[in-house]
Amino acid sequence: MASLYIHIPYCAVKCPYCDFNSYAAREWPEDAYTAALVAELQTRATETPWSDTTIETIFFGGGTPSLFQASSIGQILDAIGRAWPVAADVEVTLEANPGSAEQARLRDFRLAGVNRLSLGIQSLHEDLLTTLGRVHGVEEARTAVDTARAAGFDNLNLDLMFAIPGQTRTQWSDDVRALLQHQPEHVAAYNLTYEPQTPFHAWRASGEVQPLGEDDELWMYEHVRAACAEAGYDHYEISNFARPGHTARHNRGYWEGRDYLGVGAGAHSYASHPGWGRRWSNHRLPERYIASATAGDATAATEDLAFETAAAEFMFLGLRQLDGVDPTAFHARFGQDLEEVHPEVATFRTDGFLEHRAGRLTLTNRGLLVADAIFATFL
Ligand code: SF4
């Protein structure tokens, strides 16, 4: 069983906080890029370890995959179906922006085989959408949810963002309330981060942008946790909340260390074998990717993981999930006890950041608030 990630790198504009492999474009070579994806899928299906697998989840991410026509998405799904057995209950997610052009395509995406939609709402306040440099407005964000429902999507994720410069606690609680009124199956709430090489990073350094205070950021995180719990959502990953039976199966695969194949510009793949695991990455620039995938080799780099890297990834991916990691599974994979390889765990337990719960090692409520700092120690 494997998960399949398809990267579509084009966006209407480049948001100033974004460090994804995405490119602002007025026009994009949709036919050539789709043909390159189909060529790469055909090639990967003949390669170890992908030749002998069943596809369990498919995720169209980006960039903005909803800029593509449904017929292109359909061609890619057809190529996947020709190359591999696909699970009968396959989860097929597509990321979409709430723009009106994209909304017109939602029904066709559903008909093409997409059965889960992830809408990048981000905020329901016009001033904050402007700060984020997003092209959609509040009205488009609101109608996108209704349009998605009318198009037949009964599995919907809505993304919201907090700790945006200038955002008030009231704005955040309004956004969370309004979002939950739509009763999405899944909610992802991310705090804005200042990634190196982005305009936001430079603007923070020059003082042009004032990051929100830590107290406000923590309050916003606690608020969304409480509101989602009250509305019946399970907080199952640091930033993710789901109604019963609606966790993101594709993303859970990453956190649980399952194999995934990524196709498209700059996409990464991971397999737990041989050795301690192997990672691949494709050429990042779309033009270079199109040329290399068409010629039959999109891979730019391959890395065989060292024991230390694999043992660290097991921890910081697994601990993202609220039910944490299984020490027995760690021993089975690495042949040593978890706390022997990661002696810092004992200190985190003593200090109240990690705990044993139901036979697993998990972050405490206190640990959740400083998770990134804890993860950094495993590297
Ligand atoms: S739409 Fe998404 S992928 Fe594209 S630039 Fe903005 S944040 Fe990045």
Small ligands present: iron/sulfur cluster
Q: Rg, please?
A: 21 Å
Number of self-contained structural domains: 2
Oligomeric state of the chains present here: single chain
Helix count equals: 17
How would a crystallographer describe the biggest sheet? 9 strands, mixed
Number of strands: 16
Largest sheet: spatial strand order: 9-10-8-7-6-5-4-1-11
Q: What sort of overall outline do the alpha carbons produce when their principal axes are compared?
A: globular
Helix residue percentage: 40-55%
Q: In whole angstroms, how far apart are the ends?
A: 28 Å
CATH superfamily of the largest domain: Aldolase class I
Structural class: alpha/beta
* Mean pLDDT over all positions: 96
CATH topology of the largest domain: TIM Barrel
Describe the structure.
This protein has 379 residues and is α/β, with parallel strands linked by helices. The longest helix is centred in the middle third of the chain and has 17 residues, at 214-230. It folds into two domains: 2-254, Alpha-Beta Barrel (TIM Barrel); 308-376, Arc Repressor Mutant, subunit A (Orthogonal Bundle). A nine-stranded mixed β-sheet has the order 9-10-8-7-6-5-4-1-11, sandwiched between helices. The chain has helices spanning 30-44, 70-83, 100-103, 106-112, 126-132, 138-150, 169-181, 199-206, 214-230, 249-255, 286-294, 307-318, 327-334, 338-341, 344-350, 365-369, 371-376, and strands at 2-8, 10-11, 23-24, 55-62, 86-96, 116-122, 156-162, 186-191, 234-237, 240-242, 260-264, 268-271, 278-282, 299-304, 354-357, 360-363. Iron/sulfur cluster binds next to loops. Residues 11, 14-15, 18, 20, 22, 62-64, 97 line the site of iron/sulfur cluster.
